[in-house]
Automatic annotation (TrEMBL):
Annotated Palmitoyltransferase DHHC domain residues: 167-283
UniProt KW keywords: Acyltransferase, Lipoprotein, Membrane, Palmitate, Transferase, Transmembrane, Transmembrane helix
Coiled coil spans: none
Single GO MF annotation: protein-cysteine S-palmitoyltransferase activity
Enzyme Commission number(s) from the entry: 2.3.1.225
Swiss-Prot/TrEMBL catalytic activity: L-cysteinyl-[protein] + hexadecanoyl-CoA = S-hexadecanoyl-L-cysteinyl-[protein] + CoA
Entry annotated with the keyword Membrane: yes
Domains (record comment): The DHHC domain is required for palmitoyltransferase activity.
Domain of life: Eukaryota
GO biological process, one term: protein targeting to membrane
Protein's name in the database: S-acyltransferase
GO terms for cellular component: endoplasmic reticulum; Golgi apparatus
Length: 348
């Protein structure tokens, strides 16, 4: 009881000091402190795994002297993975409010200025592309122009759908299909996939591609590191027992990470090829606009090639809002494949 009475004022004083931190404003927010702690832990893990390898493995040092390109490639992948991690962590997932600002700012300009377009306003797949200018995102929303966003979102849903079904009760904004409110970020995210704790941000339309490249690089780095650990144990087993024990423990934890990363990479590759998100796949029966669509139908898929193009080549500063498929499109996707469909690459 005495120790608890002594520790409690110290803990309260520490919390008050962190909440009033003026030198590092990011530390005043508990969520940011937690995110920063996870990032430091992840960087530390990378340094520990690589540092112990170079500290214990004398053969690797000798190989570096004779074949410096081998170690240079490993270190290049090491630093590229960390850079990709921080780029993904600091990127925007694509917020609904940002797209709403872009629409309310651009539509009045488009109405006043005649523009000649090579494509019709509504494409065959029902997608609408809106370019976002960074300077426009800082402007305030104009109340009279919010109706343009409401009309745009309304056109993406089937006729007769109530506005209450796609209005966020937290942000009070109209959500286009595939958007969801994230309680961790307290914002609605376009094409919400999930909230990544390790990255400290949501994964959505704006940074899903960066996230896939990050887990791809992380998987390759872990595989390469695991091979180096196994090579060391084969050559130096039973020499120094405490070194072997440390290397074996690290190799076991690394193997678990490799299995998890491989499964995660395969899972997100499948989502990309079918144009789905984790949220849509896991909670499909709870999403109102997906309940009436058969489960074996990928409603937003435009074919493997088009899905890959939209995922990899469309810039993150462009928000793509996809309309729900019509009944005719659903029936077309339900039609079984024939030999002619295979020859004409219908799935692509």
């Amino acid at each position: 009881m005495m120790m608890e009475g002594i520790c409690r004022p110290v803990r309260d004083t520490w919390n008050q000091a962190m909440d009033r931190c003026y030198i590092f404003p990011c530390l005043s927010d508990p969520a940011r402190r937690s995110s920063l702690g996870l990032k430091l832990a992840l960087v530390t893990l990378h340094l520990v795994y690589a540092g112990i390898l170079f500290l214990f493995d004398g053969d690797l040092i000798e190989k570096t002297k004779s074949e410096p390109w081998y170690t240079a490639l490993y270190l290049l992948l090491f630093f590229a993975t960390l850079v990709q991690y921080f780029i993904t962590s600091g990127s925007s997932p694509g917020y609904v409010i940002d797209a709403m600002r872009a629409v309310t700012e651009k539509i009045p300009i488009i109405q006043k200025t005649p523009v000649t377009s090579k494509q019709p306003a509504s494409s065959k797949n029902g997608s609408l592309v809106i370019s976002v200018d960074g300077s426009q995102l800082e402007r305030n929303l104009l109340g009279n122009n919010t109706t343009s966003w409401s009309k745009l979102v309304m056109d993406m849903y089937p006729p007769g759908t109530s506005a209450r079904n796609w209005t966020c009760s937290y942000c009070n904004v109209e959500q286009p299909p595939r958007a969801k409110h994230c309680h961790d970020c307290d914002k609605c995210v376009l094409q919400f996939d999930h909230h990544c704790v390790w990255l400290g941000t949501c994964i959505g339309q704006g940074n899903h591609c960066r996230f896939w490249w990050y887990i791809c690089e992380e998987t390759a780095l872990c595989l390469w590191t695991g091979i180096l650990y196994i090579t060391y144990l084969k050559a130096n087993i039973s020499r120094v027992w405490w070194k072997d024990a440390i290397m074996i423990v690290l190799l076991i934890t690394l193997s678990i990470s490799i299995i998890f990363l491989l499964l995660l990479l395969l899972f997100h590759s499948y989502l990309i090829l079918t144009n789905q998100t984790t949220y849509e796949l896991v909670r499909r029966r709870r999403i109102p606009y997906l309940r009436g669509i058969p489960e074996r139908i990928y409603p937003f898929s435009k074919g493997i090639c088009r899905n890959l193009y939209n995922f990899c080549c469309v810039r993150s500063s462009i928000f793509i809002k996809e309309s729900l498929p019509t009944q005719q499109e659903i029936e077309e996707k339900l039609r079984p494949y024939t030999c002619y469909d295979v020859v004409t690459c219908r799935c692509c």
